[in-house]
Amino acid sequence: MQRVVCRCCDLLQRLPPLPAGGKARCVRCGQTLAVQPADPLDAPLALAIAAAIALAIAYTTPLMSLSVAGREATTTLPGGALAMWHAGNQVTAVVVAFCAVVAPACYVALLLVVLVAVRRPPAPAWVGDAMRWVDRLRPWSMNEVLMLGILVALTKIAQLASVFAGPGLYAMLAVVLLLPAIVSTFDAREVWQRVAWADGTGAGDLAREPAP
Amino acid sequence: MTAHAGSAARAGVVACATCGLALRPAAPMHAGHCPRCSEDLEWRHPHSIQRTWALLLGAAILYVPANLLPVLVTNTLVSSQPDTIMSGVVLLYTTGSWPLALIVLIASVMIPLGKLLALAYVLVTVQRRSVVNLRQRTRLYRTVEFIGRWSMLDVFVDTFVVALVQVSPLMSVEPGPGVVYFMAVVVLTMFAAQSFDPRLIWDAAEAESHADAGGR
C-alpha cells in the first residue's frame, strides 16, 4: 500500500489499491487524495488534442458580431483584450488576455507536451517543471467563466442592437466541455511515476519503504 | 512542531507540494528540495497567515471603489450613461433577463463579499486556535478556493461589451474606472486563498489532543 499525505489537512494515511474509475478521499477532511482513471494516458491526450484545435479556432475566428442601423462590428477573443487596452484600461487588458488567452493556451500546450513525453518512461526531469506549470495555470485558465461572461455580454448588447454568435463562440463552448473532461481523465500520480527524478536517484520515496 | 498522531508533520513526514511525494527529511529544520521534482519542501506555507491577511485587507479596501465607481460608460448621440456593478445587475433585471441578473449578482457581488468574510473567519479561528468545526472550516476554505475565479465574470462581460459596441458616433461603450479595482479584488482574493495553508486549521486541534494525551 502506498502512503500518502493529505495536502489539505496533512493526515498521513495508507492508500489502498484503487479500482479503475475509483477515487480515494481523505478520511479526516474529505479532500480527494487520488484518482484512478481507466485510461489515464490515451484519453486525456486525445481530449487535449481536440481542445488545442478548438482553442485555435476560438482564438482566430469571430466570437460575435453586431449590427445596428446598417453598421457592423465584430470581435475575436484576443480582440476583446485589445479593445480594453485601446480604451485606456491596460492593466485590465493584460489580466483579461492572460486569463482568457495565454493561460488556457499554455495550459493545453503543456498538457500535450507532458502527455506525449510520459508515453515512454522515464520521461526527462523537465517534464516535472511542465507539470508544475500545469498546476499553477489551472486556476487562471478561466474558459468557463469567460464563456458565461460572453453570453451575459451578448444578452446585454442584444438590448441595444442585433447580435450574432460567430464560429469562435461554438469553438469556445467545445473548449469549455473538453477541459473538465481532460481533468477527470487525467491522473497526476500516474504522470509523476513516469518522470525521472530530478536528483537522478529515485531513492527515499516512502511509497517504496516497508510500512513501519 | 505542534501536531498529533496522524499528522504527517508529527511523524516527520513532509509531502512535496508539487508532486505529492511523501518524504522524511533527514534534517527537519532544513527540509531541502524534493528529490523527484526539485521543489522546495515546506512543512507549512511560510508566513501563511500574515500573507493571507495582507492580501485580504488589500482586497477589502479595493472592494469599496470597485462597487462605487462605474464599470461601464455607455455613450450614444444624446446621452452618456455610467453603470456600476450593482446598477448593471438592476439593468439586466429590469430589461427582463432575471436569470442572468441573478448570475451576475452572485458572481460579482455575493462571491467577492463571501470570499472576504469566509477567509477572514477562517484566519481568525486559526489564530484563536479554535478546535471546533474543523471539517466545516476546511470545506469552507476549499469552496472559497474553488469558486473564487467566477468573480472574474463581470470583468469579461465588460471587456466584450466594450469590444463589440464600437459603432461611434451612434453608440460606444467605454470601460469605467471601477473595472480595474474590481479585477484587482478578484486577483487579490485568489492569491489570498492560495497563500492560506488549510493544514493550519488542523494544527490547533492536533496540539490540543496531543496536550490531552500528555496530561493523562
In short:
Chain A is α+β, with helices and mostly antiparallel strands and 212 residues long. Chain A has helices spanning 42-60, 77-86, 90-117, 126-137, 143-158, 167-185, 188-193; strands at residues 2-5, 12-15, 22-25, 32-36, 64-68, 71-75, 162-165.
Describe this structure in words.
The complex is a heterodimer of chains A (212) and B (216). Chain A has 212 residues and is an alpha+beta fold. Chain A is built from 7 helices and 7 strands. Chain A has helices spanning 42-60, 77-86, 90-117, 126-137, 143-158, 167-185, 188-193, and strands at 2-5, 12-15, 22-25, 32-36, 64-68, 71-75, 162-165. Chain A has a 3-stranded antiparallel sheet with strand order 6-5-7. In chain A, strands 1-2 form a two-stranded antiparallel ribbon. In chain A, strands 3-4 form a two-stranded antiparallel ribbon. In chain A, a hairpin with a 2-residue loop joins β5 (64-68) and β6. The longest helix of chain A has 28 residues, at 90-117. In chain B, the strands form 2 sheets. Chain B has a 4-stranded antiparallel sheet. Chain B has 7 helices and 6 strands. Helices cover 56% and strands 9% of the residues of chain B. The radius of gyration of chain B is 23 Å and the shape is elongated. Chains A and B meet through β1, β5, β6, α2 and α3 of A and β1, β2, α2, α3 and α4 of B.
